[in-house]
Amino acid sequence: MNLDNHIVSAGSTVLLKDHDPDDTGKYKSKEDAAKDLQADVETLTALQDVLYAGNSHALLLIFQAMDAAGKDSVIKHVMSGVNPQGCQVVSFKVPSAEELDHDYLWRSLKALPERGRIGIFNRSYYEEVLVVRVHPEFLQKQSIPGDDVKGSLWKKRYEDINAVEKYLSRNGTVILKFFLNVSRKEQKERFLERMNTPEKNWKYSAADVKERSYWKEYMSAYEEMLGSTSTQWAPWHVIPADHKWFTRVLVARIIIDKLKSLKLSYPRLTEQQQADLLKAKESLLRE
Ligand code: ATP
Ligand code: MG
Question: Ligand 1, atom 28: nearest CA belongs to which residue?
Answer without folding.
Answer: 94
